[in-house]
Design a protein that fits this description.
- There is one protein chain.
- By secondary structure, this protein is mainly alpha-helical.
- The protein has two domains: 105 residues, no CATH class; 154 residues, no CATH class.
- The chain contains eleven helices and four strands.
- It has a two-stranded antiparallel sheet with strand order 1-2. The chain has a two-stranded antiparallel ribbon with strand order 3-4.
- β1 and β2 form a beta hairpin.
């Protein structure tokens, strides 16, 4: 537990430094590195990393996906770029069909598109004006507080197994404990942001929809559990304990960010329809 806490604290400090610097190219590089690491871990777990040519093509594509999304010219040509990526994968399969299976090509294509697309929503959110950084910090805090709350609640009072065949340590007590801590985050975060914005950031008084933040925090926590269980199922079917060991006590990048894979894209889409922060005095 101590190693897990220290690793989380170090990761939080790094994240805070990156957000304080607030440099768009740095955001792109970080999302690209996280995406490449996550896909690499999946390919290692599924053993399709042995398909070296296909894996290299997939990882190169993954590395440029965040760049494509933030560059208007490249983004307009995304269908063409994606088709070129798939063409290269199938070309490899055609010329090396004795060693490369369709299942390998399909999985490499799937994870190479879905994982960076999901993680790129971190980038999309932080670039939302004018409150994108806060909305991203709020979303990640709600997810990770739910994760931490579930872990500690389940550790100390968890009795009823939630999905024993997928993740034996998960309990219903931990699940609801996670929802509670995420909801608490949703309750406190808007008040904190209103105070910080008024005194340190903006020249206006802002008003936040407190109910929205509470509901979104709880939903992000629930979607985080879905991501966690999905990753656990993949690990169980691949017979691996963790996807990696880059974060002591947590495992690999995907072990830490599995709870983000569904929650952040969901939050980003919601923010397209409703912005929960408004200025009331200029």
């Amino acid at each position: 537990m101590l190693r897990r806490t220290i690793s989380a604290a170090v990761a939080a400090v790094i994240a805070i430094v990156v957000l304080i610097l607030d440099i768009t190219p740095l955001y792109i590089i970080i999302v690209s590195l996280l995406s490449v690491a996550a896909v690499y871990e999946l390919l290692v777990a599924t053993k399709y990393i042995k398909q070296k040519k296909s894996s290299i093509i997939g990882l190169v594509f993954v590395s440029v996906v965040p760049v494509i999304f933030v560059n208007e010219t490249l983004r307009d040509n995304l269908p063409t770029i994606s088709c070129a990526f798939l063409f290269l994968l199938f070309a490899v399969m055609i010329f090396t069909h004795e060693k490369v299976s369709f299942e390998a090509i399909a999985l490499i294509a799937f994870v190479s598109i879905c994982v960076p697309l999901s993680l790129s929503c971190l980038l999309f959110m932080v670039l939302l004006e004018p409150h994108g950084m806060f909305l991203l910090i709020f979303s990640l805090t709600a997810i990770f507080m739910g994760d931490a709350g579930a872990y500690f609640t389940g550790t100390f009072i968890g009795k009823h197994k939630m999905a024993p065949s997928i993740s034996p340590k998960k309990t219903w007590e931990g699940f609801f404990g996670g929802l509670f801590f995420s909801g608490l985050t949703g309750l406190c975060a808007p008040f904190v942001y209103e105070f910080v914005y008024l005194n340190f950031i903006g020249d206006a008084v802002i008003e936040t929809n407190k109910f929205f933040f509470i509901i979104m925090a709880i939903l992000c926590s629930a979607l985080g559990v879905m991501g966690d269980l999905s990753a656990s199922l993949v690990k169980r079917q691949c017979a691996v304990k963790d996807f990696g060991n880059i974060m002591p006590g947590h495992g690999g990048v995907l072990d830490r960010f599995d709870s983000v894979l569904f929650a952040i894209p969901f939050m980003y889409q919601v923010l397209h329809f409703y912005v929960p922060v408004t200025s009331i005095i200029h």
